[in-house]
Amino acid sequence: xxxxxxxxxxxxxxxxxxxxxxxxxxxxxxxxxxxxxxxxxxxxxxxxxxxxxxxxxxxxxxxxxxxxxxxxxxxxxxxxxxxxxxxxxxxxxxxxxxxxxxxxxxxxxxxxxxxxxxxxxxxxxxxxxxxxxxxxxxxxxxxxxxxxxxxxxxxxxxxxxxxxxxxxxxxxxxxxxxxxxxxxxxxxxxxxxxxxxxxxxxxxxxxxxxxxxxxxxxxxxxxxxxxxxxxxxxxxxxxxxxxxxxxxxxxxxxxxxxxxxxxxxxxxxxxxxxxxxxxxxxxxxxxxxxxxxxxxxxxxxxxxxxxxxxxxxxxxxxxxxxxxxxxxxxxxxxxxxxxxxxxxxxxxxxxxxxxxxxxxxxxxxxxxxxxxxxxxxxxxxxxxxxxxxxxxxxxxxxxxxxxxxxxxxxxxxxxxxxxxxxxxxxxxxxxxxxxxxxxxxxxxxxxxxxxxxxxxxxxxxxxxxxxxxxxxxxxxxxxxxxxxxxxxxxxxxxxxxxxxxxxxxxxxxxxxxxxxxxxxxxxxxxxxxxxxxxxxxxxxxxxxxxxxxxxxxxxxxxxxxxxxxxxxxxxxxxxxxxxxxxxxxxxxxxxxxxxxxxxxxxxxxxxxxxxxxxxxxx
Length: 618
What we know:
Elements: H1 7-11, H2 21-25, H3 33-45, E1 46-48, E2 55-63, E3 69-71, H4 78-108, H5 114-168, H6 188-217, H7 225-259, H8 262-282, E4 289-290, H9 296-309, H10 340-343, H11 363-380, H12 383-392, H13 395-401, E5 403-404, E6 406-407, E7 410-411, H14 419-444, H15 451-482, E8 490-493, H16 498-522, H17 528-557, H18 574-609
Parallel strand pairs: 5-8
Antiparallel strand pairs: 1-2, 2-3, 2-4, 6-7
């Protein structure tokens, strides 16, 4: 809806005019339209609040649910942000509650091999994060963040309800194994229904992830120092709420799945999502809504298209001859020499008009694409961390299912071992916030580690985690070979797996916050969704690379149920697979250091030219 005060820009003169002396002497403010509109706009923008004596101002770039300029006293702040975070808690409860224990359902109920079960989980999680790119595109181009969240949450609610029904009906799963250990795998129809429910959930998750964090930050005004401080706390609490939802998923929800029934657990997920939607709707009148600036993906494609169209043209010696949009003066980015092929998008050819961005792009738009391109090498070297993360919710859970998990008379569900993973995240965040940051500030005078340092620490911890996993699996296999083949539970404690969960979990606490900070602060100002999409795409590709590596390793070492990733891991060499991931991670870390060293000088040069690159953090 059009802002009621938008006529101001149309009524004010665009060119200075020289008034005659007579008109100056006979000036009447009540007959002068421009003066009247100016006074009216000032009165409408800020009004005095009698309750606290402070000014209650409008938010310049946000509107309320009616389309009028958002009033700070009536919209935004922590209450609307908390209602948005409620959706995120329930999404984490559902998605992680399904993911961390799905591998045991696939192998124990659907009777699939361990490698195939792991790949189904990683493909599901990868699709969840990949679809966030689609959700971001729809939010930016058509729906807006509010409706994207509402529709996506509804889809996820339907998906979890359908999964509850699918796991309840005996017709949708194979019969139990008989006494001779002969197990019949699930047929195509049964797997098809299961896939349908899972990817319905993935569609909802992707839409939510693309918009939850952005809509939450929309509730705070970046131009207000107090609200800007609150926004910084919002990011910390956002990650805390994610971890809280995950903690509830891997403890309470997994226990209900194993001891009460999966259909009951998934039904709880569906009901919780429905409650979260109702709470989200209750805040409709209090939210702040920001106008979309269009999809960053479209902007990037437009620049590439224009550059390809002008590929045969010569670049001018004077960069001032390249096209620049005068309306972008406030956010203008200075020209840089990198990726000169893209500069051809700003060459003004005969017949080109600024109205067709597919044929002509401004220097600022070209430089925004260059900024994204500079991030890609660092982006690529953070993907492998999430491949290692994928092992924590797949093969590590399969390992746990074969080990002694009892404490007294209580048996820990295999999927609940990831509680150590989540606990490591929460402990690391607490220690970093309360101990490391104050000490680092006293020693170095800086507020903790830089975003690149945090990513580096996360990568190192993931290497150590995979090395610990290889050692633990070697000990588990030694016990498996020493006992009878019919032994269902090996006489070795499951707590042997704690180091790998704790190291990778601590690594996630560093790399998650480091990546989010890095991509947001170093992406173009108008591409917040793109920066979030870049971050989430590393998670998606990490899961897909895990599936790809499993397929390659099975084909190379044995695809007949034997080899490193045997159908029964007691007869495989999972330790060798973990060792392979350790070696790949070391190589990847070296590549990360090279990319960072190449990125920093360019970042420093550009940040001196233009404030829109964000603070220098590297």
